[in-house]
Design goal:
The protein is an alpha/beta fold. It is built from 20 helices and 52 strands. The chain folds into four domains: 236 residues, no CATH class; 147 residues, Rossmann fold; 130 residues, Immunoglobulin-like, CATH 2.60.40; 164 residues, Jelly Rolls (Sandwich), CATH 2.60.120. Helices cover 22% and strands 29% of the residues. An eight-stranded parallel barrel has the order 1-2-3-13-16-17-18-19, surrounded by five helices. Helix 1 runs antiparallel to helix 13, helix 2 runs parallel beside helix 4 and helix 15 packs parallel to helix 16. It comes from Colletotrichum gloeosporioides. This is Alpha-L-rhamnosidase.
Length: 958
């Protein structure tokens, strides 16, 4: 079977491992093996591709003991349950991942805060010395207290700094004169220091101590002994994790189970709590990497209360350079001493390293993403899709073909989430480079303080509605989850094929992914007319793939036609590191088109390693002299600059919310389109490049798995023009495949639409009004077809509604788990003469559950029967929940949950037709009534059908 045929076959039935994984929360090892086995089966039968086992219980107050002494994380009961989970998952071909430790950040129970391997911080102390005062006393102590378990702290610096003349010594911030430092460290005796200011200025007496953070993983305790967060910037921290897994978890039996299907260890976002990130060897590492002593800038890189900087240098360029060099060193140490050894160890054990490379301030996410097997983002922390474009740039240059996302965590939204909410989140992410998802999440059925409908790892949270979601059989919409997981599997398969190709590489001075930066034009106005963009930084441009051939950057990767460089958004001015400026010059000399944004007449040098402003200025002056480089000072002139360069996006269309990603898979060009708006759809022509003399565009339905040739398009001047119609946040997948000859198709038509039968290939003209319609075929033939008047539009108003109302089975349950979580279904029946939301129907305001709407309608008459020359669409108004449908007792297949119009022609018959629509809701309306103290703050959702229309059309074979 060819690669292409293999892909198309897999699309129809997506392989298990492309389907979404479920983030599975356990309350430590306080679980029952039979229940673990049952929950794996539940996820498998729902179509999930794997599980990720996490010890998370945020709904429980921090400090709450829950069988920690006997069933903590990595205890024998936990290990036994993991083996059961892996055995069941393996039998079903599912993948299985683990978190590195309990909750996050990464922690193990074999260290204490004073150990070399534990997380460290540097903490400042301060005292102000007035102009006439001589200080002689104790070294100022740290501004914050040590956490429990932290017994040791080491004084590493005592310094005096002159406070700038115009600065308030007691203000916030306090400005210091760079270069005024007097080092008093070696003069300290018995904890005391003396200092007399050498002038009439006010001076800062500054101290710094290193100590363990004492941080435990979120919502501790998880283990006995206590687990503490490891040092993420030293070899010792990584080795402590490796040693624990080797000694306590990776037994021969466990390794055998792990090896049967793909396994990753997962590191969540690095939400490390410290005054300022540090490691015992930081000063030496900084000196060797940056070329000067970190002690020369120490006050301005150490944070004060609420993670703010109290001290700043009066020279803002020096201030920015100091912080740049500190953050660069933090990234270096995290990459070299944390990521590298852990990945090497995991790969040696047949596992992969998946991580969210952010959470540490200004961490270069792009660099870290290239060092991982699987970089991951998240729909909660990544507030805009440009955050995903940061990681997309990294994996493009590094040749990594998978980007994962923690999907579906929404704040204050537990039991409210619908599949359409999930789809509206993930479809734009797919268009930004996403390929894999881990659904947030699936809670074990029972845990601390369990109530109906089961224990929730994230809800209630601190006395209010928590984070979404606890999926599973406890929620009514679970009955339709196989439709969703199949769609996600096909979308992931589709977006994983081949190599993504982009138009624009947008240069950033830092590679952070969690600062929500949006570069001007290219991911906003430019994206609306077809531009595709990823971000790049200095590290990516020094990778082997970053070469220029035929005016293209990274032709074997993103194949970018343009590199854009803007002023530093952190500084609000033009500045670059010398290495960046030199690399940009090299790329420009190689012929790469560049667009330089802003005023670059006097660019500065970023960083203090050396004063290289002159070198940066020389490099920028040179590249601005080149014909392939255009500088626009005004951002509104970007289109003019692009015109000067002669550049347009590969895919072109009129301005709209339409965004896409294009991937080359052998001779196939794959396009994933979505309307990136929650309120506005698209209906327009799109112009696509083609690489072959003859091509055949295929439309792939990711809901049904059906693949069909497109019926209407034009090919002209090496481009394919095709119509795209999408509802808000709906997606469409197209493949432009090579063909040995032209596939006859409609090139132009006055008809409402052209339909091609996916089985026979027959073309049909469809119209909503009677008349003669002109058709031009690609072979030059011109035809006129006559369409008769279609049957009348039917607004369906009379319905039988049957509702299964989900309620707790026991108002006063016993301590038995099954008694607590049991659900009873209360039956409601209505005869409706019009459709309206459940919130407007007496008796259904607080109801959540499943429902069936039933009605009958008549098509055709004795004089004009419904037949092959007719068809109809079923139109649904906006629907909150999930649904399936049957006509005349036959299921309509899997329906696109983002669509509002469905071609139901082949299920209809002449005369009386029955229509049944099966609906499923979230659980929030019931939870508002059941636990109003937590959930009533969330508005009641408007479940149910609001309108259903049958819209007939006439059709004529071409």
């Amino acid at each position: 079977m060819s690669v292409a045929a293999d892909f198309l076959d897999n699309f129809r039935s997506p392989p298990t491992l492309f389907r979404p994984y479920g983030r599975w929360w356990w309350p430590h090892g306080a679980v029952e093996n039979d229940e673990i086995r049952a929950e794996v089966i539940q996820m498998a039968e729902a179509g999930f591709g794997g599980v990720e086992i996490e010890d998370v219980h945020h709904s429980t107050s921090e400090g709450t003991e829950w069988h920690t002494d006997t069933n903590g994380w990595a205890s024998e009961p936990w290990l036994d349950a993991v083996k059961v989970a892996l055995t069941e998952a393996n039998s079903r071909g599912m993948g299985h991942d683990f978190a590195f430790g309990p909750a996050w950040p990464m922690a193990v129970p074999t260290i204490v805060p004073d150990d070399e391997a534990s997380a460290k911080e540097i903490v400042l102390g301060k005292s102000i010395i007035n102009t006439t005062t001589t200080y002689n006393g104790s070294v100022p102590g740290p501004f914050s207290k040590r956490k429990d378990g932290v017994n040791e702290q080491k004084l590493v610096a005592v310094q005096a700094w002159r406070i700038s003349q115009d600065s308030d010594p007691y203000g916030n911030p306090v400005y210091l004169d760079y270069g005024s430092m007097v080092d008093l460290t070696d003069t300290v005796a018995d904890g005391k220091v003396a200092f007399s200011p050498p002038d009439n200025s006010s001076w800062l007496l500054f101290s710094a101590v290193i100590r363990g953070t004492g941080q435990q993983p979120e919502d501790y305790p998880h283990t006995i002994p206590t687990s503490y967060v490891v040092d993420h910037f030293s070899k010792a921290g990584a080795q402590a994790v490796i040693d624990f897994w080797e000694d306590q978890i990776l037994t021969p039996e466990m390794l055998e189970l792990i090896a049967q299907t793909p396994t990753s260890l997962f590191e969540d976002s690095q939400e490390m709590v410290s005054a300022t990130y540090w490691t015992p060897n930081f000063a030496d590492e900084f000196l060797s990497r940056r070329g000067y002593s970190v002690m020369d800038i120490l006050p301005v890189i150490t944070q004060y209360k609420n993670n703010a900087y109290l001290f700043l240098f009066n020279d803002l360029e020096v201030q920015r350079g100091s912080l740049h060099d500190y953050h660069e060193t933090i990234t270096d140490l995290y990459a070299d001493y944390h990521i590298a050894p852990l990945r090497k160890w995991l790969n040696s054990r047949g596992m992969k390293y998946r991580a969210q490379p952010y959470g540490i301030a200004k961490l270069d996410s792009m660099r870290i993403a290239t060092a991982l097997d699987i970089p991951e983002g998240e729909s909660l922390g990544f507030q805009i899709i440009d955050d995903y474009r940061v990681l997309a740039g990294a994996i493009s240059f590094a040749g990594v073909n998978i980007m994962s996302s923690e999907l579906g965590a929404y704040n204050k939204a537990a039991y409210t989430t619908t599949w359409t909410k999930i789809l509206g989140t993930v479809n734009p992410q797919f268009a930004a480079g996403l390929t894999h998802n881990v659904l947030h999440g699936f809670s074990y059925i029972y845990g601390p303080e369990t109530t109906w409908p089961g224990w929730g790892a994230f809800t209630p949270y601190k006395g209010r509605i928590g984070y979404s979601e606890s999926w599973g059989p406890r929620t009514p919409t679970w009955m339709h989850v196989p439709d969703f997981t199949a769609y996600m599997g096909r979308a992931s398969l589709f977006t994983s094929q081949g190599i993504p190709k982009y138009d624009c590489a947008f240069f950033r001075q830092n590679g952070a992914s969690d600062d929500h930066y949006v570069g001007p034009y290219f991911t906003s106005e430019g994206a609306r007319i077809g531009w595709t963009t990823t971000y790049v930084d200095e590290y990516l441009l020094h990778l082997p793939s970053a070469v220029v051939i035929d005016r293209r950057l990274a032709p074997n990767a993103g194949n970018y036609s343009l590199l854009v460089v803007a002023e530093d958004p952190d500084a609000g001015q033009a500045q670059l590191t010398p290495a960046s400026a030199s690399k940009l010059r090299d790329l420009a000399d190689a012929g790469l088109p560049m667009l330089i944004l802003g005023n670059w007449t006097s660019p500065g040098s970023l960083g203090l390693s050396e004063d290289s402003s002159a070198d940066v200025a020389t490099d920028i002056e040179h590249l601005l002299s080149l014909s392939n480089v255009v500088n626009v000072a005004d951002l509104s002139s970007i289109p003019t600059g692009l015109a000067k360069l002669g550049l347009t996006p590969a895919v072109m269309h009129s301005a709209s919310p339409l965004i896409h990603i294009r991937r080359e898979h052998g001779d196939f060009d794959l396009y994933f389109f979505t309307a990136n708006s929650s309120s506005t759809g698209v209906s327009q022509d799109v112009s696509l490049p083609i690489r072959h003399d003859y091509v055949a565009p295929l439309e792939l339905d990711a809901w049904s798995g059906e693949i069909s040739l497109v019926g209407q398009y034009t090919i002209m001047d090496g481009r394919l023009n095709i119509g795209i119609s999408l509802e808000p946040q709906q997606s469409k997948m197209l493949i432009v495949a090579p063909s040995s000859a032209d596939v006859v198709h409609v090139a132009n038509s006055t008809a409402d639409s052209i339909f091609r039968n996916s089985t026979t290939g027959q073309l049909f003209v469809r119209n909503g009004e009677a008349g003669d319609y002109r058709i031009v075929l690609s072979n030059g033939s011109q035809l006129t077809t006559s369409s008769k008047a279609p049957m009348p539009v039917l607004e369906l108003t009379d319905w039988a509604l049957e509702v299964d109302d989900w309620q707790p089975a026991n108002e006063n349950p016993s301590d038995d788990v099954e008694d607590i979580v049991a659900t009873k279904l209360v039956y409601h029946s209505f005869n409706l003469t019009s459709l309206s939301p459940w919130s407007d129907i007496d008796g259904l305001q607080n109801v959540s559950g499943n429902a069936t709407y039933s009605t009958e309608f008549v098509l055709g008459t004795a004089e004009a029967p419904y037949g092959s020359d007719a068809g109809a669409y079923m139109e649904l108004d906006m629907f909150q929940g999930s649904f399936r449908a049957r006509i005349n007792g036959e299921a309509l297949g899997t329906l696109d949950q983002m669509a509002h119009s469905f071609d139901v022609s082949k299920w209809l018959r002449n005369g009386t037709n029955t229509l049944e629509i099966e609906a499923a809701t979230s659980l929030i309306n019931r939870m508002r009534a059941f636990q109003p103290q937590y959930y009533e703050q969330y508005a009641r959702q408007k479940y149910g059908l609001k309108s259903v229309t049958i819209r007939p059309f006439s059709q004529v074979a071409v």
